[in-house]
Amino acid sequence: LQSLTYSYQSDVWSFGCVIYEILAKQEPHANEDIVTIGLKIRDQAYSPPIPKGIDRMLKKLLKSVWQKDPSNRPV
């Protein structure tokens, strides 16, 4: 079930985007159409590519906060 309400799980996803911005020094999906990206995130849990060469703990963190099933994201 998908809704337009914000939740703890959506905040966790957004936290991953902030981490991405710090590591990659750019906005996620900066050169992509915002509507298309929004639909991909909603329908496919589309996330930005994890930057190469980052610490494995940060890589693991990003993968966990961007889980497709919100109930699998860290609490």
The class by helix and strand makeup works out as mainly alpha
Low-confidence stretches: none
**Overall 3D form:** globular
Number of helices: 3
- Please state the average pLDDT score: 89
Oligomer: single chain
Instruction: Work out the radius of gyration.
Output: 12 Å
Main β-sheet description: none
Portion of residues in beta strands equals: under 5%
Distance between the termini: 20 Å
Total beta strand runs: 0
The percent range for helix content is 40-55%
Listing every helix as H and every strand as E from the N terminus to the C terminus, the arrangement reads: HHH
Q: What does it look like?
A:
Helices cover 51% and strands 0% of the residues. The chain is an all-alpha fold and 75 residues long.
